[in-house]
Write a structure and sequence with these properties.
transmembrane helix, transmembrane, peptide transport, mainly alpha, transport
């Protein structure tokens, strides 16, 4: 194996033979390395034992490519800040719109090439140990990957922001910026800390791969590698390159989203049962896609389609099927049974709601049970009565807690040894 290749677990012999027997792929940019299948043919080492990873991730590396460049820091910081702001801003929507790091991954490509073409390539402090340049050469894939990592670190919502939001909106209390910042940073540091502690078990093993990352790796290769299309007998090139296919899909998806996202928001949920029976409570409970079970409702908004799992195109079939079965079991079996059999007075509350109610089904006044010191007023709580929630909301909470223990049980059962 060449010295510039990344060491990784050896791919299984069966899969290696399958790859060797496949047709030769198109050539690629030497800076990225040869195509994965060609690399496997040339070397018996370096591939991942996971077939999906081996077919997507190249095993070659060019250590001479500059990484910590001026444009990387500028574009990476900008992408992190913008995605953090936009995702938090859209998080307060009824149907939250999530802007993933893939958006930044696409957007920074022309910006990176633009900076590489217009920024001076002058070398400052030449001959000195502090020598540096703002433009070390063409925009490369390593800079692009690092910028995307920056963007990804800011793309996710900070979970503790729920606390800050709830205190200000529902309890009408003022939290100072410093206190809010400490709450947010504490939870984030805890998360990164636990990830670092368990890195050996959750990150480094070859089996711990994530399908979404393979989508991004494939996109990196499409944006940076050069492809040669085959030539027909008439001398014309046939087929589409990955770049051309990507651009066509990008334009089509943007043009499609204009309709449900801007021109006709009603396409978010088409509840035809509610249209047929506009005055029926039962019909709205069954057919409403926003306030009911959504039976028969059709959603053409991609944020509605992908809200329960992110992008279903990136998840493997078994994961998607598992989520669908669990969702159908809770939403269309357990929830209707508990509601129509009036379990725990379920009919007193909406069939589908995340609100807080009194025992009579009225909206619960949270401010009335909190005193001026932001403590629970026990006397007021006893006078108003205990909090009540819908059966659906109760099951949602229960499932969230069950997921924590089920993860531990799954590891013990399937990976105990």
């Amino acid at each position: 194996m060449e010295s510039n290749e990344i060491d990784a677990p050896l791919i299984s012999k069966v899969f290696h033979n399958d790859v060797d027997n496949r047709p030769s792929p198109s050539t690629s940019n030497s800076n990225i390395g040869n195509d994965l299948e060609t690399s496997v043919s040339d070397s018996s080492e370096g591939n991942s034992p996971i077939e999906q990873v081996a077919l997507t991730v190249p095993i070659d590396d060019d250590p001479n490519l500059p990484v910590l460049t001026f444009r990387m820091w500028v574009l990476g910081t900008l992408a992190c800040v913008l995605l953090s702001f936009l995702n938090q801003f859209f998080w307060y929507r009824k149907e939250p719109l999530s802007i993933t790091s893939i958006s930044a991954q696409i957007a920074v490509v022309p910006l990176g090439h633009l900076m590489a073409s217009v920024i001076t390539d002058r070398v400052f402090f030449k001959g000195n140990k502090w020598e540096f340049t703002l433009n070390p050469g063409p925009f490369n894939v390593k800079e692009h990957v690092l910028i995307t990592i920056f963007a990804n670190s800011g793309a996710g919502n900070v979970y503790a922001i729920h606390i800050v939001t709830a205190v200000k909106i529902f309890y009408k209390k003022n939290l100072t910026f410093f206190v809010s910042l400490i709450i947010v940073i504490t939870t984030q540091v805890l998360g990164f800390g636990w990830a670092g502690i368990f890195r050996r078990y959750l990150v480094e093993p070859a089996a711990m791969w994530w399908p979404q990352n393979l989508v991004q790796v494939s996109l990196f290769r499409s944006l940076h590698e050069k492809e040669n299309r085959s030539i027909s007998n008439s001398g014309r090139r046939k087929g589409l390159t990955r770049n051309q296919f990507f651009l066509i899909a990008l334009v089509c998806s943007f043009a499609y989203y204009v309709f449900p996202g801007y021109l006709f928001p009603m396409l978010t949920s088409l509840s035809w049962i509610c249209w047929i029976f506009p005055n029926s409570i039962l019909a709205h409970q069954i057919g409403s896609g926003l306030h009911g079970l959504g039976v028969g409702a059709i959603g053409l908004d991609w944020s509605s389609i992908s809200s329960y799992l992110g992008s279903p195109l990136a998840s493997p079939w078994f994961a998607t099927a598992n989520i669908v079965v669990g969702f159908a079991l809770v939403m269309y079996v357990i929830n209707p049974i508990t509601y129509w059999f009036n379990v725990y007075q379920a009919k007193t509350f909406p069939i589908f709601s995340d609100g807080l109610f009194t025992s009579t089904g009225q909206k619960y006044n949270i401010s009335a049970i909190v005193d001026s010191n932001f403590h629970l007023d026990v006397n007021a709580y006893e006078r108003i009565g205990p909090l009540r929630i819908s059966t659906f909301f109760a099951m949602a909470y229960g499932i969230c807690f069950a997921c924590l223990t089920s993860t531990i049980v799954h590891v013990l059962l399937f990976h105990g040894r």
